[in-house]
Amino acid sequence: MRKLKLHELGRITIDQFKEAPKTPIVVVLDNVRSLHNVGSIFRTSDAFRLQSIFLCGITSTPPHKEIHKTALGAEDAVSWRYFDKTTKALELLKQEGYLLIGVEQVEGSISLPEFKPVKGDKYAVIFGNEVKGVDQKVIDQCDMCLEIPQYGTKHSFNVSVSAGIVLWELAGKLFPRK
């Protein structure tokens, strides 16, 4: 086996990305404080060709060298918007017909492997602050919450790891892998 060179990967350009059909998922970052986490989530969103990212509250916005350090240019491809309050972003998404899904450990949460997204529906997936998680006021606006099963002594993941797990699972269910 031979490692592929960059020119062999069939990457699309930023302009092609912007014109390409998108996975009907908007990522909402609720007060994510680490710029490296924000950049990593931009890269993941680029990989799964997501609709957009909504950056809310204290979440930093591009351009920023610390976001770029992990996004590696994905912040130029993936569309994004800033909202001073996450609740305002969710109100807009609800009006646009998105199902609001918090990723949090709550009463009545649905285990991620059990969730069955419906093709044709639009999803807004909300990820929270590294310490406090998704704010309760935001949870109150959600239609549902997903929880990632965990089996160790800790009961949390880094927010960018959570985003990678959840978005991989949802994108795979919306567009089955070959």
TrEMBL record:
<dbReference type="InterPro" id="IPR004441">
    <property type="entry name" value="rRNA_MeTrfase_TrmH"/>
</dbReference>
<dbReference type="InterPro" id="IPR029028">
    <property type="entry name" value="Alpha/beta_knot_MTases"/>
</dbReference>
<keyword id="KW-0808">Transferase</keyword>
<dbReference type="GO" id="GO:0032259">
    <property type="term" value="P:methylation"/>
</dbReference>
<dbReference type="GO" id="GO:0005829">
    <property type="term" value="C:cytosol"/>
</dbReference>
<keyword id="KW-0489">Methyltransferase</keyword>
<dbReference type="GO" id="GO:0006396">
    <property type="term" value="P:RNA processing"/>
</dbReference>
<dbReference type="InterPro" id="IPR029026">
    <property type="entry name" value="tRNA_m1G_MTases_N"/>
</dbReference>
<dbReference type="InterPro" id="IPR001537">
    <property type="entry name" value="SpoU_MeTrfase"/>
</dbReference>
<dbReference type="GO" id="GO:0008173">
    <property type="term" value="F:RNA methyltransferase activity"/>
</dbReference>
<dbReference type="Pfam" id="PF00588">
    <property type="entry name" value="SpoU_methylase"/>
</dbReference>
<protein>
    <submittedName>
        <fullName>SpoU rRNA Methylase family protein</fullName>
    </submittedName>
</protein>
<feature type="domain" description="tRNA/rRNA methyltransferase SpoU type">
    <location>
        <begin position="25"/>
        <end position="168"/>
    </location>
</feature>
<dbReference type="GO" id="GO:0003723">
    <property type="term" value="F:RNA binding"/>
</dbReference>
